[in-house]
Each structure stands twice: as structure tokens, then as C-alpha cells.
Write a structure and sequence with these properties.
Elements (H helix, E strand, L loop, with lengths): L10 H15 L5 H14 L3 H29 L4 H4 L3 H24 L1 H15 L1 H18 L5 H28 L10 H16 L8 H13 L4 H36 L19
Helix pairs in contact: 1-2, 1-11, 2-3, 3-5, 3-7, 3-8, 3-9, 6-7, 8-9, 9-10, 10-11
Length: about 280
Amino acid sequence: MINSMKPDAKITNLFGATMIGYGVNCIIPRLGEVYRGLFLGKWEGLSRSSMLGTIIVERIIDVIMLIIAVIISIYVYSGDLFKEVVWLKSTLYAASILSAGLIIFIILFLIWKKAFSDLVIKKILNFSPKLAERINKIFHTLLDGFSSIKGTKNWVFTCLISAVIITIYALTTYTGLYMFRFDKTHLITFGMAWVISTITSFGVIIPTPGGTGSYHAISIFVLVELFSYDLESAAAYAILTHFISYVVFLSFALFFIILINKLQKKRGANSENFLSVFKLDSEEK
């Protein structure tokens, strides 16, 4: 997505910004999405408006892929998943409606961009030329973010990567079940890991710090109610897997802030922290 705006964007900065986002979400839910865009924008010299656009598009893709993963889980699970997880159907409908609404909004925004520019910006121009110029810049950079995936090849590649990411999530769950020796009491299959990984994802989506509490509750529910594990084993699995990811995300966030700022200084660029990234660059003012 960033490649369409800056082909030479550094993988270190992309990965580092992502990990910072995860780390911040462990402290303050959803704020990590903001910081991810701000840090990457500063390190790569990209506007915060275009970063916001790419984040919105990425979140829409994530929700759509989760919906697909849930649909697969419905067919993979041996019982009636909607009956076992009573909130799943309504959540699926809500996510589908929200995604469709956002997609329609972005499409209309891109189609009517000239009309918006002519109508709104020209009217503001009559009162404040400086404000009109600034809004015009924000408008066009936001458009860059919304249209960041360009071409059939990039769309296909993005969808394939998203599918691979979800598959890796399921594989980590599959591995975790063996690490906890759950195979000693139950038959473990990849389909089972897929269902667990998919349903517990909702625990991370709920805006709590790093999914604390919500992830644990849903993980325990899935293991106990859907796959008949005892409460103690399910609780141990939820607590330890969450703790591991929590420590990894926070450690990686701090590591990449230090590492990338050192690399920035070597290149003669500014180092950034959690306050400086909010400052507007000269071209954004």
C-alpha cells in the first residue's frame, strides 16, 4: 500500500511502525493505529492524512478477511457454530454492514472528489485562502491513502498476503495447543485451531488494552464450550498466550523506536518520540 506513494519505503520503518502500533494498543486500545501512521509518516516523509487513508483501507480489508475466516469456521466446525456462539451471527452481520458502508463511502468519495473540491474548498477560499489551501492538501493526501492499492496485481497480492497472515495466526494457535499438551486429552486438528484463532480474534478487536480480559474470556469460552477442555487448562492457555504476545509487542515497540531513531540520526534525519510525531511538518502546515 505504501509502495504506491513511496516505492523506496524501508521495510524496517514499515515493520517498526507496525510493532509500535501493537505496543501502544497494549496500553491504550486503538491509539496504536494513530501512532503507527504518525511514526511511519515521520520516518518516511509521508503526510499523516495519507497515512490515515491507508489505515482505514487496511482496517476494512482486515474486517473482510475476518468475516471470510468466520464463514470458513462455520463449515469447519462439526457442530452449529451460530448456536454455540450466540453473539456470532449478529456480530457478523454488523461487521458486514459496517464494511460495506465504509467501502461505499470511499468509492463515492473518490468518484465525487472533484465536486467536493469545487464546492467546499472554493467556498472556504472566499473566507480564508490559507485554510482553503490547507484543507485542499489534506483532501488530496487523504485521497492518496484511500487509493493506495492501485492495479489488479496489487489488489490480488494484498488479498493473498492477508490470507497468509490469517493462516499463520491459525498455525500459531495450532502450535500453541501442542505446546500446552492439549493433544494428550483431545484430538488436535488444523481446523480446530482455525476456529479457535478466528473466534478469539474478536477478543482482540474489543477495545481493551491489548485485548486484556476480553481475549481471556473468549478464549476460555471457546476452549471449554466448543472443545470441552477443562476450565483450568483453558485459563492457563489464555493467560500465557496473552502474556507472551503482550511482552513481545511491548519489547518490539521499544526496540524499534530506539533502532530506527539511531538509523535516522545516522542519515541526518530527526529522531521521533510519542510527542514529536504529533508536530506538523512544514509542508503540512
